[in-house]
Every structure is written in structure tokens, then in C-alpha cells.
Recover the amino acids of this structure.
């Protein structure tokens, strides 16, 4: 059997469906899973174990047999905890077949074969009765079905079904309850992930401005949660407008309702400002008394030194549909609406009691402007980065002449408008989808005319072409030759930094439409690399061995086997501003790509070594791209600076960097210890647009 997997092809900029071995899909699923991260989450595991022990003893004290239902068992860890805490029998449910097979092996290896039955089904398909999957209903319900948003993995419908069909009334539940907390903040940085700010351009003939169309201004955006490591957001990047309040809680030991509903709280702002963002997180109590608790609260709320890092549960950023001015001490109502899988918020001024009881519409917000469908949140942040825009403005001013005919190749970029404002005679922009064409049209003539914002009416000066580069014809270009070819470059299908090299392939495809002395901006790009030690990110790829005294080696082997399923290990994208690391080597330029020439037929490869300058654990290499726009002007997608002698790194916050984890981590406590250097071999295959790499620690 074969399976089809979607992968972006960096040479065409398109998603392609590749036929893969039937095992590929689940190898990817396992290799990129967060199982290791959960097994390393000491706080979570300890609290679950304490909660399970307490629940088993409460049932035993009542003189009953302890029958456990563990939904989403994964490695079988929670069932093994229950069995060793004295449970009489455990039903461990796991829908993902490779995982269920691993759980069977792990349970056997730890000697619980007679106490735990692994059931490879969705919990809603489990049957109860003499001939069923379960002999009888359980009286202890144990689950770990939560994501950062709490309900995004379907916890509510799963609990609802379990209470109806799989557990006894009045059962014990671990966790016993979850509570969701919220805090209102103002944050230009976070708000820039959701709205397009005005862009100021100093041109020859005065200041110009790109403004977002009113449709975009007033769009509520997309309902999907923005989950981030809020602990990496410095307090200078947001202003707290309210105390932390409890939004809602769910008692898992009683029947749960998953139907759409809403919750409303009254807030009294502690500071005046613009309410833009609702920050949210949850905690879970493992026992009814709330003595055993696990919290996701960020650093400014939870003043504890024992900070548990985790990547499977983070914190949520919700964008209000519009920014609302609030005054200190003047009450407002915050409403949380939810369906089975997601939550969204709105804020209203407090009016008469009766008025506020009026209907709350629970429909989920829908993006009407299409920009939120085209640009993800980091992309909004990138477009709003004035310093970055300034680099493009400076370099365009250097290369544009009054007779310049300009072609822009990037997805949903503001470059065509910048090029027009800075004096190009004619601008064409090549868009790869109807969606990006539509958004670009809106940006070029927003239906908003007032004194302060003369609208960007540009439809005759900028022509949008929806065509693939290789299908571009002279008639698209009105028989003109292109004298300036520009790109950021940015493409929505790019996953890894070098996937934006699609610009080079597009440049090669349109060669016949370029003048012989064409200016290409950026003129070239380079790939950079550095060896780092991660503060915490290493955990997601680190073997666990034993967890709370149970042998989970089988899981380590399974993850390792999946990581090695491809001949060469692959780099993976991570937004490193969220994951602190320190540099162990200097950054090194390893490959250069010259956009003034077409893509060569042969591969580009390089070998070399990089010296380790600091002691530490070499967890892996980080790779990123730099684009050289014009003489002395470049845009960097990776390392912004090494901020101190300890080697702490600051990363571009709008881009994901590529991380290649080393399979064996070598610690050098002092510089005289080995390793002293890392050798690398990096190969850019021009046929596939992919980069293969290999590292050895000397």
C-alpha cells in the first residue's frame, strides 16, 4: 500500500503530493511527535502519579475494586501508574495503531500484562459488557487529552461520551478539574501579528503611505489559537490592563457538555489603555481538594523558582475582533465563546444588567478580508516590521530609475507598492494564487478615502498577474522587458529557510523577459550555520529511558527508528525566539546563491569545520538565510546578534530557523576536552531544491 503526502517543492513553489511508503506517514507522525517532550515533563508526570494514587485509594477506601479507564494512553504510562498504585484492572485506549503496539510492548516489559488491556480504538467505539472491549464500566477515569487551548484535541466530546457510556456515575477523575484563566493586555508587538499597520515611505516627492483596507482593519481574523511560549515574551512588550481572572472551569468527574456555549466575566481595568489581546492559560487539579495542581501560568503570574519547561502545553494569545479603549476602574465585560474545539473572545462596555443578558452570538469568527488566510501571524509581524521594510526601501531607491519596469515575485508582498511609490515607471507582480491576487488588489485600492489617508489607488500603475513564472508571456507584460526583478523573497509554501530560494527558480524561468542588464534584488543569498546548546528544546528529541520508574525504552527506539527512516536526517523548522540557546561556535557562512545568474545544473556543495569556542553541550546546528539586497544592505532571517559573552542568541522573531539535532550530544565541560570542532558537509541539490547535511563532532 502507498500513501500520498503533501510536501512543498522548493523548485516550483507548489505543494505536491508524493507517493510514499505506507510507513512514511506514521514515521513522520512519531518522529515529529511531542511524546518525548511529555515524558520529560517531570512536573506533569509526578502530579499525575500523585493524583492517580490518591484516586485509587479513595475507591479502595469505599471497599470497591478500582477499575481504570485511560483514554489516549500513548506509551501506557498513566495505566502503569494506576496498576502500580493498586488498581485492579486498567483499560488503556489508544487510537494510533503504531502507538498502541508500542504500549502493548511497554506494558509487557514492565510486567503489567495481566493488569492492563490496551485497546486500539477510538474511545467512542469502545464497547462495554461480557463480550465487549471492557467487562464493566470503570470507576476511575484517567486522561491526558489536552492541548495548549485545553479543548483543541477534542477533550470535551470525549469526556461527554465517556460519562454516558464508559464510566460509572460519581466516578473519580484524574485530572479532577481544569480552570481557564485570562488577562487583558495591550501589546503593539502581539497586535502586529493580526493587523496590517500603516507603512510610511519617504519618497522623492514627499511621504507616501500604504494603508490597510477598511475590510482588513475591521476583520476579526481567524479563530485558530495563537499558542506560544509566553515565558519568552519580555514584559516590556506588553502592558497589563487587568488582573488575572478565572474565565471558566470544567469538572471532569461529572458529566461534561461539549455543546457550544459562552462564559462571561466582569473586569475592572487596573490601567487605562487599548485592550487588544486576551492572554490565557489553564491549570489542572489532579484531586478534588486542589492540593495536587499543575499550572501553565506565565512567569509574571507564578512566582516560583521551580519552573517546568514544556512544549506540549504553552500559553494562548487571542486577538480581540477590534482594539477597545478601556479606562482604569471602568468595568467591562469579557465574553469567552467556545465550540467543541476552540475558544474566542469579545469585550463589551458594561451597560445595564438587562442589556448585557441579551443574546450572545456564539458563531466562530470568520476572516472576511482574506489577508488572515494568506498571511500567518509571523508574516503579519514581518510585514509590520518597519526596520525590515526600510532595508527594502533603501535598496529600491538605489536601483530604481524613472524608466524602470519592475517585476515582483513573492507571495502577497508590499514590494510592488513600494516600487511604485519610489518611482518605477511600471510594476508587475506575479502572484501564485487567486487568494494572493485578491488580497493584493485590496491593498492597492482600499475603499477608504479620508483626509489623513489618501487611498493607495494604484490599479493602473501596478498590474497583478496570476500565473506561474514558467507560463509568463510577453502579453502579460504588455510586451515590455523587465529591467528590475525584485523579491523579498517570501513564499507561503516555504517551511525551511532555504525553501524561499524558489525565487531563484522563478528568476530562471522568466529569464527571456529580462533585459540583458537586469538588476536583480536581492542580488544573492547566503546560508549560515552555527553550533548551539539549547536551554530546553533538546528535550523534544532526547531519549527518556525511564519515566517515573517505568521503562519506556521501546518508545525511544520507536522515535529513533522513525527519525532514521529517511537515509539522511532532516532539519526541522523552529521559531528560535521562543527557545533560548547559546552559541558554541561563531556563525559561519557556508553557501552562496547568486541570483544574478540562473540556477546551475550542478549541485552546490561545501565541506568544512567550525571551531567550538565555548564549553557546553553541542545539541545541534542552526541554519538560516541572509539576503543581500544591494551593496551593503541585507536582510537576515536568523541570528540577529549574540547578546553577551555567555553566547546568548537573539533571533529574527518573524521567521523559523532550521534546527538539525545531532544524534549524539557531546559535552565539553572545558575547552581542553573534546570535541574542539564540528565538521560539516552540506549539499544543495539544484534538481530538488533541498539541502542535505551531515555533521561530525571531532
Amino acid at each position: 500500500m502507498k500513501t500520498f503526502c503533501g510536501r512543498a517543492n522548493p523548485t516550483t513553489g507548489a505543494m505536491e503530493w508524493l507517493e510514499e511508503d505506507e510507513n512514511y506517514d506514521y514515521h513522520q507522525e512519531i518522529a515529529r511527535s511531542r511524546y518525548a517532550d511529555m515524558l520529560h515533563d517531570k512536573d506533569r508526570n509526578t502530579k499525575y502519579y500523585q493524583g492517580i494514587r490518591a484516586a485509587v485509594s479513595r475507591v479502595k477506601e469505599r471497599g470497591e475494586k478500582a477499575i481504570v479507564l485511560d483514554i489516549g494512553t500513548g506509551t501506557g504510562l498513566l495505566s502503569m501508574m494506576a496498576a502500580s498504585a493498586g488498581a485492579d484492572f486498567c483499560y488503556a485506549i489508544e487510537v494510533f495503531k503504531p502507538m498502541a503496539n508500542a504500549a502493548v510492548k511497554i506494558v509487557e516489559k514492565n510486567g503489567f500484562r495481566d493488569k492492563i488491556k490496551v485497546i486500539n480504538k477510538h474511545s467512542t467505539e469502545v464497547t462495554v459488557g461480557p463480550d465487549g472491549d471492557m467487562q464493566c464500566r470503570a470507576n476511575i477515569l484517567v486522561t491526558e487529552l489536552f492541548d495548549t487551548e485545553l479543548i483543541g484535541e477534542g477533550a470535551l466530546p470525549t469526556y461527554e461520551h465517556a460519562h454516558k457510556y464508559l464510566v460509572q456515575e460519581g466516578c473519580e477523575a484524574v485530572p479532577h478539574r481544569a480552570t481557564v484563566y485570562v488577562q487583558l493586555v495591550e501589546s503593539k508587538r502581539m497586535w502586529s501579528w493580526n493587523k496590517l499597520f500603516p507603512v510610511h515611505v519617504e519618497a522623492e516627492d514627499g511621504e507616501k503611505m500604504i494603508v490597510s483596507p477598511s475590510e482588513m482593519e475591521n476583520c476579526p481574523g481567524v479563530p485558530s489559537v495563537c499558542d506560544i511560549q509566553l515565558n519568552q515574551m519580555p514584559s516590556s512588550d506588553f502592558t497589563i490592563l487587568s488582573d488575572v481572572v478565572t474565565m471558566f472551569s470544567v469538572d471532569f468527574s461529572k458529566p461534561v457538555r461539549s455543546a457550544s456555549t459562552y462564559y462571561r466575566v466582569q473586569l475592572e481595568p487596573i490601567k487605562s489603555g487599548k485592550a487588544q489581546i486576551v492572554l490565557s492559560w489553564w491549570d489542572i487539579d489532579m484531586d478534588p481538594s486542589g492540593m495536587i495542581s499543575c499550572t501553565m501560568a506565565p512567569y509574571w503570574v507564578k512566582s516560583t523558582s521551580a519552573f517546568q519547561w514544556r512544549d506540549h502545553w504553552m500559553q494562548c494569545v487571542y486577538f480581540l475582533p477590534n482594539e477597545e479603549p478601556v479606562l482604569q476602574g471602568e468595568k467591562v465585560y469579557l465574553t469567552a465563546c467556545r465550540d467543541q474545539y476552540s475558544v474566542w473572545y469579545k469585550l463589551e462596555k458594561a451597560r445595564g444588567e438587562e442589556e448585557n443578558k441579551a443574546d450572545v452570538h456564539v458563531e466562530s469568527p470568520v476572516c472576511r478580508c482574506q489577508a488572515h488566510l494568506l498571511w500567518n501571524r509571523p508574516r503579519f509581524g514581518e510585514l509590520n516590521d518597519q526596520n525590515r521594510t526600510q532595508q527594502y526601501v533603501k535598496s529600491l531607491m538605489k536601483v530604481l530609475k524613472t524608466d524602470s519596469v519592475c517585476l515582483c515575485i513573492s507571495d502577497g508582498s508590499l514590494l510592488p507598492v513600494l516600487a511604485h511609490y519610489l518611482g518605477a515607471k511600471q510594476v508587475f507582480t506575479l502572484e501564485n494564487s487567486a487568494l494572493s491576487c485578491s488580497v493584493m488588489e485590496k491593498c492597492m485600492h482600499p475603499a477608504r478615502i479620508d483626509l489623513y489617508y489618501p487611498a493607495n489607488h494604484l490599479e493602473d500603475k501596478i498590474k497583478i498577474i496570476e500565473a506561474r513564472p514558467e507560463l509568463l508571456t510577453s502579453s502579460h507584460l504588455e510586451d515590455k522587458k523587465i529591467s528590475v526583478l525584485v523579491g523579498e523573497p517570501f513564499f507561503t509554501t516555504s517551511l525551511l529557510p532555504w525553501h524561499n530560494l524558489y525565487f531563484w527558480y522563478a528568476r530562471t524561468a522568466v529569464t527571456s523577459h529580462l533585459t540583458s542588464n537586469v538588476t536583480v534584488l536581492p542580488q544573492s543569498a547566503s546560508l549560515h550555520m552555527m553550533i548551539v546548546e539549547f536551554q530546553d528544546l533538546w528535550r523534544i528529541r532526547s531519549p527518556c529511558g525511564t519515566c517515573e520508574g517505568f521503562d519506556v525504552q521501546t518508545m525511544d527506539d520507536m522515535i529513533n527508528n522513525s527519525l532514521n527512516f529517511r537515509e539522511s536526517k532532516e532539519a526541522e523548522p523552529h521559531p528560535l525566539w521562543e527557545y533560548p540557546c547559546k552559541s558554541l561556535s561563531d556563525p559561519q557562512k557556508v553557501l552562496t546563491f547568486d541570483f544574478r545568474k540562473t540556477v546551475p545544473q550542478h549541485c552546490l556543495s561545501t565541506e568544512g569545520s567550525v571551531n567550538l569556542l565555548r564549553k557546553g553541550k553541542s545539541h545541534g546546528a542552526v541554519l538560516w538565510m541572509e539576503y543581500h539586497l544591494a551593496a551593503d544592505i541585507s536582510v537576515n532571517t536568523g541570528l540577529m546578534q549574540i547578546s553577551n559573552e555567555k553566547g546568548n542568541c537573539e533571533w529574527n522573531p518573524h521567521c523559523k530557523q532550521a534546527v538539525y539535532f545531532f544524534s549524539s550530544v557531546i559535552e565539553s565541560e572545558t575547552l581542553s576536552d573534546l570535541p574542539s570542532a564540528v565538521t560539516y558537509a552540506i549539499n544543495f541539490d539544484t534538481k530538488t531544491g533541498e539541502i542535505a547535511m551531515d555533521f561530525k563532532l571531532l
Notes: The first helix runs from residue 24 to 31. The radius of gyration is 28 Å. The chain has 16 helices and 38 strands.
